[in-house]
Amino acid sequence: MSVLKATSWGRTRRPKAPNNIDKNLITGSLGLADLNALSEANFTATNGCYRTENQRYAHLMCSGSSTISNVYAYNYASGYWHELMTVKPDDGARLSIAVGNDEHRIVDIAGADWISIKSGSLSVVTMAFSTF
Questions:
Q1: Are 131 and 9 in contact (CB under 8 A)?
Q2: What is the value of pTM for the model shown?
Q3: Potential cystine with 99: which of 68, 87, 88, 89 (Cβ 3.0-4.6 Å)?
Q4: pLDDT digit string (tens) for 97-108?
Protein backbone atom coordinates (compact mmCIF):
# COMPACT_ATOMS: atom_id res chain seq x y z
CA MET A 1 0.00 0.00 0.00
CA SER A 2 1.31 3.44 -0.95
CA VAL A 3 1.31 6.22 1.61
CA LEU A 4 0.49 9.78 0.52
CA LYS A 5 3.43 12.07 1.19
CA ALA A 6 2.40 15.65 0.41
CA THR A 7 6.00 16.88 0.46
CA SER A 8 7.20 14.45 -2.21
CA TRP A 9 8.46 15.61 -5.58
CA GLY A 10 8.51 13.40 -8.67
CA ARG A 11 5.27 13.82 -10.62
CA THR A 12 3.68 16.67 -8.71
CA ARG A 13 -0.01 16.80 -7.88
CA ARG A 14 0.04 20.61 -7.77
CA PRO A 15 2.66 23.32 -8.29
CA LYS A 16 5.12 23.27 -5.38
CA ALA A 17 7.02 26.24 -4.01
CA PRO A 18 10.80 26.05 -3.59
CA ASN A 19 11.65 24.11 -0.42
CA ASN A 20 7.91 23.35 -0.04
CA ILE A 21 7.32 26.76 1.59
CA ASP A 22 4.07 28.15 0.12
CA LYS A 23 3.63 31.92 -0.27
CA ASN A 24 7.36 32.44 0.26
CA LEU A 25 8.77 35.49 -1.54
CA ILE A 26 11.83 34.73 -3.62
CA THR A 27 15.01 36.72 -3.96
CA GLY A 28 16.41 37.51 -7.37
CA SER A 29 20.04 37.35 -8.40
CA LEU A 30 22.17 40.21 -9.67
CA GLY A 31 22.64 38.58 -13.06
CA LEU A 32 24.44 35.93 -15.05
CA ALA A 33 28.01 36.98 -14.24
CA ASP A 34 27.31 36.96 -10.50
CA LEU A 35 25.61 33.56 -10.71
CA ASN A 36 28.57 32.04 -12.58
CA ALA A 37 30.94 33.42 -9.91
CA LEU A 38 29.17 31.32 -7.23
CA SER A 39 30.33 27.85 -6.26
CA GLU A 40 27.61 25.18 -6.08
CA ALA A 41 27.90 25.33 -2.29
CA ASN A 42 26.66 28.92 -2.51
CA PHE A 43 23.52 28.12 -4.51
CA THR A 44 21.11 29.34 -1.84
CA ALA A 45 17.90 31.34 -1.74
CA THR A 46 19.88 34.23 -0.28
CA ASN A 47 21.86 34.31 -3.55
CA GLY A 48 18.70 33.91 -5.63
CA CYS A 49 19.20 30.22 -6.51
CA TYR A 50 16.36 27.69 -6.24
CA ARG A 51 16.53 23.91 -6.67
CA THR A 52 13.87 22.73 -9.11
CA GLU A 53 13.92 19.02 -8.24
CA ASN A 54 14.09 18.56 -12.05
CA GLN A 55 10.50 19.60 -12.63
CA ARG A 56 9.29 20.53 -16.12
CA TYR A 57 7.75 23.97 -15.52
CA ALA A 58 8.43 27.03 -13.40
CA HIS A 59 5.40 29.11 -12.44
CA LEU A 60 6.65 32.69 -12.04
CA MET A 61 4.30 35.20 -10.42
CA CYS A 62 4.71 38.92 -9.84
CA SER A 63 2.34 40.92 -7.65
CA GLY A 64 1.75 44.67 -7.63
CA SER A 65 4.46 46.59 -9.46
CA SER A 66 6.94 43.69 -9.35
CA THR A 67 8.54 42.42 -12.54
CA ILE A 68 11.02 39.78 -13.69
CA SER A 69 13.40 40.73 -16.51
CA ASN A 70 15.46 37.54 -16.90
CA VAL A 71 15.31 33.83 -16.04
CA TYR A 72 18.46 31.74 -15.64
CA ALA A 73 18.96 27.96 -15.45
CA TYR A 74 21.80 25.76 -14.21
CA ASN A 75 22.43 22.11 -15.03
CA TYR A 76 25.07 20.05 -13.25
CA ALA A 77 25.98 18.55 -16.64
CA SER A 78 27.17 21.92 -17.99
CA GLY A 79 28.43 23.47 -14.76
CA TYR A 80 27.40 27.00 -15.77
CA TRP A 81 24.38 29.25 -15.50
CA HIS A 82 22.72 30.30 -18.78
CA GLU A 83 19.86 32.62 -19.61
CA LEU A 84 16.64 30.98 -20.71
CA MET A 85 15.23 32.68 -23.78
CA THR A 86 11.91 32.63 -25.59
CA VAL A 87 11.70 32.51 -29.37
CA LYS A 88 9.23 34.64 -31.32
CA PRO A 89 7.49 32.28 -33.76
CA ASP A 90 7.06 34.91 -36.48
CA ASP A 91 10.72 35.81 -36.97
CA GLY A 92 12.79 33.52 -34.71
CA ALA A 93 14.12 36.41 -32.61
CA ARG A 94 15.32 35.40 -29.15
CA LEU A 95 14.04 37.43 -26.22
CA SER A 96 14.64 37.39 -22.47
CA ILE A 97 11.81 35.82 -20.51
CA ALA A 98 9.97 38.57 -18.66
CA VAL A 99 7.03 38.60 -16.26
CA GLY A 100 5.04 41.79 -15.81
CA ASN A 101 3.01 43.40 -13.05
CA ASP A 102 0.34 41.12 -11.57
CA GLU A 103 1.25 38.41 -14.09
CA HIS A 104 1.61 34.63 -13.78
CA ARG A 105 3.78 33.04 -16.44
CA ILE A 106 4.55 29.36 -16.86
CA VAL A 107 8.01 28.69 -18.31
CA ASP A 108 9.28 25.35 -19.61
CA ILE A 109 12.54 24.70 -17.76
CA ALA A 110 12.87 21.14 -19.13
CA GLY A 111 14.24 19.62 -15.93
CA ALA A 112 16.97 22.17 -15.16
CA ASP A 113 18.63 21.51 -11.78
CA TRP A 114 18.48 25.13 -10.52
CA ILE A 115 16.69 28.33 -11.53
CA SER A 116 17.23 32.00 -10.76
CA ILE A 117 15.48 35.20 -11.78
CA LYS A 118 16.41 38.86 -12.03
CA SER A 119 13.82 41.30 -10.76
CA GLY A 120 13.70 45.06 -10.58
CA SER A 121 13.78 45.69 -6.84
CA LEU A 122 12.66 44.20 -3.56
CA SER A 123 9.79 42.60 -5.34
CA VAL A 124 6.74 40.57 -4.44
CA VAL A 125 7.71 37.58 -6.57
CA THR A 126 6.72 33.97 -5.91
CA MET A 127 7.59 30.79 -7.74
CA ALA A 128 6.48 27.18 -7.94
CA PHE A 129 7.44 24.11 -9.96
CA SER A 130 5.33 21.39 -11.59
CA THR A 131 5.39 18.54 -14.08
CA PHE A 132 2.21 19.70 -15.84
A1: no
A2: 0.88
A3: 68
A4: 999 999 999 999
